[in-house]
Specification:
- By secondary structure, the protein is α/β, with parallel strands linked by helices.
- Helices cover 42% and strands 17% of the residues.
- Helix 3 runs parallel beside helix 4.
- The relative contact order is 0.13.
- The N terminus is likely disordered.
Length: 379
């Protein structure tokens, strides 16, 4: 039954626009965690890509060609992700693939794209995805390094000197932990505790108790839902008042829902989408942000998320590469992605290059605090 569900996800996506696409359509593959533990990432990513496919095709396509999006649900499972990648490359004849949602899944399949000479534009944030640079692999989220830099700038401004970290033991957490262990001492801070939890753990009281004993000035938690929400609740249960930073991996309303009152006062770096109404009218991202919010609300009667924004930007960047080069061939898309500069997306303003396949810096982030169950800009 699981295999059948996985195939159905593809059929539904292809028929979403209610149209038969031409044989020479621009074929874009995608792998998202639409179901499973990471569905809070993959569902808005899938929805966004289907919405944008329909919007672009209704407007006449790109360079006279319609766009055909082929989406597979990896169910948050690395083995299903590998199967999807091989099918897209070996059978579906796509010119580019967007996704996966998860860093670990991306790292597991990225080598296939170099061999196939097909570009991959990941929606996952681990720095290892794009450093060292693989000519065929790009990503769209702000990097762990950008997030850590913003957190440490905030911590320094508040006079914190002793820091503790609590990271999840998956691909995303391991990548973040590596950057934290590098930048904390480099920034003149003392790392007084370094604790780890598992992706399926439901209680982090033991780790937080050890951290409490180290008397840090602040704690940095690195993970994606639901773990960080558990950390937030356990912190309150233990009576810990030590300031708690979260990573950009929880920058969606789902985290506030999961953490409840325990989210109050937490600080994290996030893209401007979480505070779109506060973005200045003259900021280059403002028109893109406003259009995405409006389009998504109309299509799904639901709020957008930063994670859907990663898919938005991947799709927009791919189409910009097709427009720039006048070609939807895989090699031409790859070459023209590297020529994109100053391109405003949902997650930041992108400038790719041969040595930069992420295209963003820490200015793509703002620091936000959760107050009264909503996001507030702290800078």
């Amino acid at each position: 039954m699981k295999a059948a569900k996985w195939v159905v996800a593809l059929v539904v996506t292809l028929l979403s626009g209610g149209q038969v696409l031409a044989a020479d359509a621009i074929r874009i593959g995608a792998i998202f965690s639409v179901t499973g533990p990471a569905s809070f990432l993959g569902e808005p990513e899938r929805n966004t890509l289907v919405m944008l496919q329909d919007k672009v095709n209704a407007a006449g396509g790109v360079n006279g060609q319609q766009v055909e999006v082929i989406v597979y649900d990896d169910e948050s499972d690395v083995n299903k992700c590998v199967m999807a990648a091989k099918k897209l490359l070996d059978q579906d004849g796509v010119s580019v693939v967007i996704g996966p949602s998860i860093s670990g899944n991306t790292l597991a399949i990225s080598k296939f794209f170099s061999s196939a000479e097909v570009p991959l534009v990941s929606c996952a944030a681990a720095e290892k995805i794009v450093k060292p640079v693989d000519p065929w692999v790009f990503n769209t989220p702000q990097l762990d390094r950008h997030a850590v830099t913003k957190i440490l700038q905030n911590a320094k401004a508040k006079g914190f000197s002793k820091l503790a970290i609590l990271t999840v033991s998956d691909g995303y957490g391991q990548a973040g932990r590596a950057v934290l262990n590098e930048l904390i001492p480099a920034g003149g801070f003392q790392l007084v505790a370094d604790e780890v939890y598992g992706p399926k753990d439901t209680d982090m009281t033991a780790q937080l108790t050890k951290i409490k004993g180290a008397s840090p000035d602040a704690i940095i938690c690195w993970g994606t839902n639901p773990g960080p929400a558990v950390v937030a609740r356990n912190r309150v249960q233990l009576g810990l008042t030590t300031p708690l930073y979260m990573s950009h991996g929880v920058a969606s309303d789902k985290f506030i829902e999961l953490a409840g009152d325990a989210a109050e006062g937490l600080i994290l770096p996030a893209g401007r989408l979480v505070a779109v109404d506060l973005v200045p009218a003259d900021h280059p991202q403002k028109p893109v942000l406003d259009a995405y919010v409006a389009d998504y609300a109309k299509a799904y009667n639901a709020p957008v998320s930063s994670f859907g924004g990663y898919a938005h930007d991947a799709f927009a960047l791919v189409l910009e590469a097709v427009r720039k080069g006048g070609s939807a061939k895989a090699a031409d898309i790859r070459d023209n992605l590297e020529k994109i500069a100053g391109f405003a997306g949902v997650s930041g303003v992108y400038t790719y290059g041969p040595e930069n396949h992420n295209g963003l810096d820490e200015s793509a982030f703002i620091m936000v605090t959760i107050k009264n169950g909503t996001w507030n800009v702290t800078e």
